[in-house]
Amino acid sequence: MKNVNLGVVIMGIITRMLFVAEDEKVCCNCKYFVQFYTLYSYHQDKFFTACNAGYCVQKRMKNRNPKQKVCEHFEWKQDRE
Fold first, then answer.
1. Is residue 25 classed as helix, strand or coil in its secondary structure?
2. How many domains does the chain fold into?
3. Is residue 75 part of a domain?
4. pLDDT category, 1, cuts 50, 70, 90?
5. Domain that holds residue 14
């Protein structure tokens, strides 16, 4: 088996897991949602990747899933076009 860059493989898997359309009304598209990240290291390579968790700074709620149904405080992120 040839050497595979594990970071690229992991990032590809996580990106597919967390994919959400920009016009979908879910927590990760809200300006109050803060995404959690995980630090991966493989040999000399270190990188952060989004994990399937975060929190809401408006309601100070813990354990918000990026794809979770929104609450009454939902506001679209400003970076939407």
1. coil
2. 1
3. no
4. very low
5. 6-64
